[in-house]
Every structure is written in C-alpha cells, then in structure tokens.
Design the sequence.
C-alpha cells in the first residue's frame, strides 16, 4: 500500500460518529432541555431514534420520493415525529428550531482536534458529510475542528453513499479519486468511496451508539485501520 | 447602520485583490520562472495581462459562449495565449501547469491573516470568490488564511457578479442575505451583493495593480469602509 498511499493529497472525513460524538452530545442537551421544559423522558432513546430516522429519511430523498432537502430539514422532519411519539407538547417554534440545531453543536471525540491538527500538516483535511454546509461550518466553530475545506453532500445534490458525492468531492479538490483517502467509521461509506477509487481508512468508534451498544463489527478491507486520529497520524508517519 | 449591522453573522470575502496580492506574487514567481527558463520578458506586463484576461474569459462563460469551466481552466486558456503573445516557447506541459497554479500560491496582504483571526472570533469568515474550491483551499494552506468555510462561484454554476453566487452562498450558510456582509475591494462586487440584500464593507487596495497603477476610485456606498482587515475589526468592535 505504501506506493498507493504516497499519492494521497487529501483526507476526507465522515463526520457524524467518526469525528463527533452525536450520541452523548444529544443526550446531554436533551436532558438539559428536559429540565428546562419539565419533560421527563429517556433522552438516550430519543437520541438513538433521532439518529435511526436519518438513514430512512435520506433514502426517501435518494430514491426520489422526496425532493432534495438538506439535513437540517430532514432532522426537523424526524424531530417533529419524535415530539409526537414522546408526547412532548407546548414547545415553541423557536425552541424546536434550537433543539434541531443540536446537530450543529456536537462534541468531537477526544482525539479529533489534536489528530486533525497533525494530519493537516501534510494533507488537506476536509469534511465529506451528509450534513449541510451551514451545519458543518457551525459545528467546526463550536468544536474547534480545523478543516481546510467544508465539503458536503449538499454541494452534490446526492447523499452518501451515492458515488456522485465522492466523485464531486475529488473534482472540487482538483484531485483524482486515488489521491483522496476517505476516513470513516461506517463500512458502507468506505465501501462506496473505495468503489470510485478513493483510498480508505477505517476508524472504529465503538462508543458511537453509547456504552455497550456496538452495532455489528465496523470491519472493512481498508488501506489503514486506526483506533483514533492520532493513531492515524502515527500510521502516516506525521509527528 | 448599527441595527442592520448587528444582524450580521458571516463575512464573505472577495479574494483576488481583496485578501491576496496577486500582482506582486505573480511578478515574483514569473521572474523566478524566467530566470530558470532563460526567458527575459517584462513580468509586470505579463501579470497585468493575465489578470486583464480574467474578466473577459468569465464573461464568455457568463454569456453562455463557453460552457462552465472553472478558473483554473480559464487561467490556463489565458496563459496559453500569453505564452504565444510573449513568444515563450519550449515550456513543458508540467511547467505550464505549475505556472498556471501560481494563482494557488498568492501572498496575503500584510493585514489579512491577523485581521481574519480577529474577525473570525465573532463571525463566520468565508471566501466568496470566482476562484475554484481547489484553488482557494490550496491558497488558504499556502498563505495561512483561517477560513471557516470555502465558498466559491464554482459551487453555484455562475460567476460573480451574477446574483445567484451571492444568493447561493447565503443559503449554504443557512443565513438570509442581510445576515451576510460582503467584504471586497471591487465596487461591482459590492454593488451586486448589495442588490440581493447583503451588507457591504469596502476595503480599498490601492496597490492591487502595482505601485502607481490605481484603477479609478474604489468608491461604493458601503455600510463600512476600512483600509484593511484590522481596521474592519476595529470598526466592528472586535478586540
């Protein structure tokens, strides 16, 4: 792999789960929201269901059942149905909007910022997320993520794992696919990027769904496997 | 203006001329290129003609005469005709490509990095340039420009001053136009952004075309006028 890897000029990162810990961030904000509004529910279940609604909502866009809409809009669709399901009433539109934007305020995994700082010494580091540009930009400011460039499915009119997302990202960076390495915790993302010629790095995040909720094995025949972003920098020989 | 200005959440920046000094950067690289290749021409004229070809080339795209192509491609079109005009022969394809990418290696004005660091404490700071995403990303790494987000005409399928560029930029940031302030040295850019509802800040750059070559007065009825980015931060009350 050394020869192939030496061509890499940019690392593109999946974000939800790979860079940031959506689960504990949403549970923490949810519990605070519950305290403020006198809502006593299980916010771990609320967080897991919100996230579980995400793939199906995107698939409705990918299949053409829904016209294009960004993740803020899809998160809001799911939120509205969860508010029904959890019988949460009397929340103002402004508060719903604020809660929906919790996805702009997710906390990075402990290694993410320091690892990215190292990786960007040699590579372009960019998001390549289904999250929309505003979400990713606001999150980067909130979390101190030092991206060189914000790339998003929103810029392509497709959602991952559609090949257009990866192909357009490489083209926007002025690179051929084999000059880009996708870094992700989800095998489907790595598979799809590999299918269009990206190199791949798997970073398992066993706590993505909370303690004790590993969802299958995050296995994928990647060029690299690293337990966190600092280990990825080590493997790439970056001080 | 104070009330309107208090809505601003993002500053979008013109880049060529406003943030970076294309003129002296290209003259310096050109002279080095000339020394290496034994080419004795007036690189100040070469730089000025390269830049002068840029507006007309974009207008061929804006009018539909040429299909969409990014600035790297347009710079190369102009470069090829300048190589003819200046009777420069025997340059390899790799060297032409490297020279064309001088636009990825432009030096910032002396105040640009420190001013942006101050401005980004309170605002999202983003490019909004006709330069393509790869060019702007590479330039940011080269010059140490601390953008929160790389926005480009390339993402909109239009070139400034088409209104779609500004409208799409605001939409990608999740903001309404009056929450965005365009920062530019060129009145046409400010005028076009103002026409779709942006706030505006004029930053005159009297050395843009080299010493003693001021091209008319950079006047525009902007919300703010600042001589550089640190003065802009001062005017906005940022320490």
Sequence:
């Amino acid at each position: 792999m050394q020869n192939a890897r030496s061509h890499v000029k940019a690392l593109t990162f999946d974000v939800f789960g790979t860079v940031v810990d959506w689960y504990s961030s949403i549970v923490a904000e949810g519990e605070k929201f519950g305290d403020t509004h006198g809502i006593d529910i299980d916010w771990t279940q609320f967080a897991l269901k919100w996230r579980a609604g995400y793939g199906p909502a995107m698939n409705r866009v990918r299949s053409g059942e829904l016209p294009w809409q960004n993740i803020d809009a899809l998160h809001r669709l799911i939120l509205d149905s969860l508010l029904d399901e959890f019988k949460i009433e009397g929340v103002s539109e402004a508060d719903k909007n604020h809660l929906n934007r919790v996805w702009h305020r997710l906390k990075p995994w402990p290694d993410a910022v320091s690892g990215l700082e190292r990786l960007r010494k040699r590579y372009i580091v960019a998001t390549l997320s289904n999250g929309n540009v505003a979400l990713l930009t606001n999150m980067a400011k909130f979390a101190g993520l030092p991206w060189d460039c914000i790339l998003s499915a929103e810029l392509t009119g497709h959602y991952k794992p559609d090949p257009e997302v990866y192909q357009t990202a490489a083209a926007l960076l002025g690179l051929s696919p084999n000059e880009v390495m996708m870094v992700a915790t989800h095998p489907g993302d790595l598979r799809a990027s590999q299918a269009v010629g990206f190199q791949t790095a798997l970073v398992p995040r066993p706590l993505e769904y909370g303690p004790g909720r590993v969802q299958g094995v995050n296995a994928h025949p990647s060029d690299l496997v690293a337990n966190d972003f600092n280990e990825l920098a080590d493997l790439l020989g970056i001080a």
In short: Chain A has two domains: 2-21+108-235, 22-104.
